[in-house]
C-alpha cells in the first residue's frame, strides 16, 4: 500500500505543528454548528452568484450553473514551505517566459538540441503570426496558474511537484479571494488566533502588473477585461476581477479598430484601450486572422497588437509553453535560460510520441494517469488504478490511434487534507494553484486556490468534474 501524506495529521494521533492551534479549535466544534456554517456559506455564495457552468461533455454547448462546493476546513502552509515554493514558482515562470520569447525569435533552445523543433512547430498552440513580434518587457504570460501537488515519499514525508503550467487564461483566482472572505465572515475568531498572510490585495497587484506592461510611451494606460460573455463558465470571475480592479468589462462587440489602435465604445464616445486582459482563447480574438466564424473577438485586433499599439494579457501564442508535451522539458529550460537547477520538480512524464515511452505506457495503463496533451478540466484522461478493464481497453484504442496526442505520469499518492463531508471530517485529496503575476517584476499573493476531490478516493479535483475548493492559509512567521 502506498504511503499517504496528510497535511494536518502526521503519524498516529500527532498533529503537524502548523495545524495544532486550528486542530484544537476544530475538535471543540459541534458537528451541527459546522453543518450550519456550511449551509450559510452556500446561501451566501448562491446569493452573490458565485457559480460555475458544468458541461455534460467537453464538446457540448450547453451547461448547468452550479455552485463550486466550498469546504470549511482550510489548507494550512507554514511560512518556510511557502518561501521555498514561491522561489520555485518565480524561477519556473521566468524560464517559461524566456522560452516563449525564444520560440518566436531565435529558437536557441531548438538549435541547442534541447527541445525538438517539431514539438514547437507542430504544436496546435504555436502561432506563426507571433514570429519576430516583440512584447513589452519580453513577458508573455502575465498571469500564470501553476498547479502544484504534494506526494508522499516512502518514509511518509511529502515533496511538492508541479503538475501543470497554465499560461493561457488560467482561472480560479476569484474563488481564492471569495473563499478567504467567507472564512473571515464565518470564523472571525480563527483569524485572531492565527497570523495568516493576506490575499485581498491580489486585484491591486493584478492591475499594477497590467499597467506595467502597457505599450511603450503610454503613461496612463486604459485597461479592460475582455470576456466571451455571460454564458462562459468563468463569467463570474471576469466580472468580479473587472469590478475589483475598477476597470471596464467588455465583450468583442464593444471594441473596434481604427487607425491601427483599439477603441471601446462608451456613452461619451470612443476611448482608446491600451491593455486587454483577455479571458478568451487565441482562436476567438480576431476573426480576420484566426476563426472567421467567431463573433467573440475584435476584427483587426492582431494587426494593432503586432504593431505594438495594444498589449494582450496573456500574449497570443503563450499556449505553446503549457502544452502537456512541452511540460517535460521545463526543468531543462530552467537550466538553459537561467543557469539554475529547478527548485520545484516535475512529475516524471512519459511522452507517448517517443517509441520507448509509448511501449511502456501501453504495458502499464492500469498503473498510470494518461492525459491528452491539449486537454483541460479533467477531460480526455485515464486514471488507470481507478478505471475498469473496459475503460482501459477503450482508452487504449484512442491511444493507439494517436500516440503523440498523449502523455502519461505515475499515479501520485496526492496529499490529503481533512475535509468536512456528510459523514463528518474525512481526508480528501487536494492540489494547489498559486497565481504568479509577471510584469516589471514577478510577484504573487501568499497561497492560491486549493482544490479538493470531494469523492472518497478520487484524485480528480477539477471543478468541472465535481471538485470543491478550500481557503489556503500561509502562516506568517
Give a written overview of the molecule.
With 477 residues, the chain is of the alpha+beta class. 29% of the residues lie in helices and 23% in strands. It has 3 domains: 17-215 and 310-346 and 412-474, no CATH class; 216-309, Rossmann fold (3-Layer(aba) Sandwich), CATH 3.40.50; 350-410, 2-Layer Sandwich (Dna Ligase, domain 1). It is built from 13 helices and 23 strands. The strands form 6 sheets. It has a 5-stranded mixed sheet with strand order 3-23-22-19-18. A hairpin with an 8-residue loop joins β15 and β16. It is globular. The two termini are 36 Å apart. This is Putative circularly permuted ATP-grasp superfamily protein. Pfam families: CP_ATPgrasp_2.
Short description:
The chain has 477 residues and is of the alpha+beta class.
Helix content: 25-40%
Largest sheet, if any? 5 strands, mixed
Total helix count?
Answer: 13
Instruction: Report the portion of residues in β strands.
Output: 15-25%
Mean pLDDT: 91
The best one-word shape is globular
Side-by-side strand order of the widest sheet: 3-23-22-19-18
Q: How many structurally independent domains?
A: 3
Low-confidence region ranges: 56-62
Structural class: alpha+beta
Radius of gyration, whole Å: 22 Å
Annotation, overall tally of beta strands: 23
Q: Distance between the terminal alpha carbons, to the nearest Å?
A: 36 Å
InterPro entries: ATP-dep_Glu-Cys_Ligase-2, CP_ATPgrasp_2, UCP005522
Protein name: Putative circularly permuted ATP-grasp superfamily protein
Pfam family, one: CP_ATPgrasp_2
Domain Circularly permuted ATP-grasp type: 74-453
Amino acid at each position: 500500500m502506498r504511503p499517504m501524506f496528510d497535511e494536518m495529521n502526521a503519524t498516529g494521533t500527532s498533529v503537524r505543528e502548523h495545524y495544532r492551534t486550528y486542530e484544537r479549535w476544530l475538535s471543540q466544534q459541534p458537528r451541527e454548528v459546522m453543518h450550519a456554517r456550511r449551509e450559510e456559506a452556500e446561501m451566501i455564495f448562491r446569493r452573490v452568484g458565485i457559480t460555475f457552468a458544468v458541461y455534460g461533455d467537453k464538446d457540448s454547448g450547453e451547461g448547468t450553473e452550479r455552485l463550486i462546493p466550498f469546504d470549511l476546513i482550510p489548507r494550512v502552509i507554514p511560512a518556510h514551505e511557502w518561501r521555498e515554493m514561491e522561489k520555485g514558482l518565480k524561477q519556473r515562470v521566468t524560464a517559461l517566459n524566456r522560452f516563449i520569447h525564444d520560440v518566436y525569435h531565435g529558437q536557441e533552445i531548438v538549435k541547442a538540441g534541447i527541445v525538438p523543433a517539431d514539438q514547437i512547430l507542430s504544436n496546435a498552440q504555436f502561432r506563426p503570426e507571433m514570429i519576430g513580434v516583440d512584447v513589452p518587457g519580453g513577458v508573455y504570460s502575465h498571469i500564470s496558474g501553476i498547479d502544484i501537488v504534494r506526494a508522499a515519499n516512502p518514509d511518509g514525508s511529502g515533496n511538492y511537484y508541479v503538475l501543470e503550467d497554465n499560461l493561457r487564461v488560467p482561472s480560479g483566482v476569484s474563488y481564492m479571494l471569495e473563499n478567504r472572505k467567507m472564512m473571515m465572515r464565518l470564523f472571525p475568531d480563527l483569524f485572531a488566533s492565527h497570523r495568516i498572510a493576506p490575499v485581498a490585495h491580489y486585484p491591486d497587484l493584478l492591475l499594477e502588473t497590467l499597467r506595467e506592461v502597457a505599450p511603450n510611451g503610454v503613461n496612463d494606460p486604459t485597461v479592460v477585461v475582455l470576456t466571451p460573455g455571460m454564458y462562459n463558465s468563468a463569467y463570474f470571475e471576469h466580472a468580479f476581477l473587472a469590478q475589483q480592479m475598477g476597470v471596464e468589462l467588455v465583450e468583442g462587440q464593444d471594441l473596434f479598430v481604427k487607425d491601427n489602435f483599439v477603441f471601446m465604445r462608451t456613452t461619451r464616445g470612443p476611448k482608446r484601450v491600451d491593455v486587454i486582459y483577455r479571458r478568451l482563447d487565441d482562436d476567438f480574438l480576431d476573426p480576420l486572422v484566426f476563426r472567421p466564424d467567431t463573433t467573440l473577438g475584435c476584427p483587426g485586433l492582431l494587426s494593432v497588437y503586432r504593431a505594438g499599439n495594444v498589449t494582450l494579457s496573456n500574449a497570443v501564442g503563450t499556449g505553446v509553453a503549457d502544452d502537456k508535451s512541452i511540460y517535460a522539458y521545463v526543468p531543462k529550460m530552467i537550466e538553459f535560460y537561467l543557469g539554475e537547477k529547478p527548485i520545484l520538480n516535475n512529475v516524471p512524464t512519459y511522452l507517448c510520441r517517443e517509441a520507448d515511452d509509448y511501449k511502456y505506457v501501453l504495458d502499464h495503463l492500469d498503473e498510470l494517469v494518461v492525459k491528452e496533451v491539449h486537454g483541460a478540466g479533467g477531460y480526455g484522461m485515464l486514471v488507470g488504478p481507478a478505471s475498469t478493464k473496459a475503460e482501459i481497453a477503450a482508452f487504449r484504442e484512442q491511444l493507439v490511434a494517436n500516440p503523440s496526442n498523449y502523455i502519461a505520469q505515475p499515479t501520485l499518492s496526492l496529499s490529503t487534507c481533512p475535509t468536512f463531508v456528510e459523514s463528518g471530517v474525512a481526508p480528501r485529496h487536494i492540489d494547489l494553484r498559486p497565481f504568479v503575476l509577471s510584469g516589471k517584476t514577478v510577484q504573487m499573493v501568499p497561497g492560491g486556490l486549493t482544490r479538493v476531490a470531494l469523492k472518497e478516493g478520487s484524485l480528480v479535483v477539477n471543478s468541472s468534474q465535481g471538485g470543491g475548493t478550500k481557503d489556503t492559509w500561509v502562516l506568517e512567521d
